Amino acid sequence: MNFTIKLLIIFTFLLTLSNLDAQTFKTSTNDTVQSKILFKKSIVPVSLIGFGVIVNNSSFEKNLQTNLRNKVGNNYELRIDDYLQFAPIVELYSVDLLGIKAKNHWFDQTKYLFIANLISSTLTHSLKILTAKKRPNGAAYAFPSGHTTFAFTNAGVLYNEFNDNSHVLAFSGYTFAATTGSFRMINNKHWLSDVLTAAGIGILSAELVYYFEPFKNFNPFLKTKNITLVPQIGSDNYGVYFFYNF
Q1: What is the CATH number of the domain that holds 210?
Q2: Is 28 exposed, middle or buried (0-12, 13-18, 19+ CB in 10 A)?
Q3: Which of 105, 147, 151, 178 has the most CB atoms around its CB within 10 Å?
Q4: Domain that holds residue 98
């Protein structure tokens, strides 16, 4: 039994388990509602992961990649994906500085952003090592796409923070994330399955974090509304931006 079939079996099992959980978990009305909400929010990311597993190493994705590169040119490369993956983070903290109402305090946003990325990156890098799949350009560690995972995780956090107050802002992060994934394929760095699976992992990680809300009551900055600390993340450097509103 090859790896793709194994993952497909696991995917089917998890989907069935989630469905049973959503239908049978009856400890209280609130718990039942919350469980069903999580199930509904999991449908899209789990479907993306499932479809990614199905087309992994298939002739369909190989032909798609070949046709895509033939259209843009085999020497084409536009490294916009290296920067667009950070766009949802920039949006998140920019609107915080502008005073647009979010679901959580900026520290809680940062906390959930960190935890969601920790979960998604751990899953992604573990699968990269486990599958050892070759990229379209011949390099190693294709499945799933790290850039795409990072972008969709960030977009998932942005969505959860602003979906109640601004649907346009909430969904804009997914536009940047989808563009990031598209250019990973256009630049011949990843296959379709790498991008789809990564998108599912990123979205699902964010949804799980906002469902369980780990360390919910930990916020030493909750009473210091005039102070904002924004993490600065670059390709080879990290830092913190300090903002004080007088």
Answers
A1: 1.20.144
A2: exposed
A3: 151
A4: 3-244
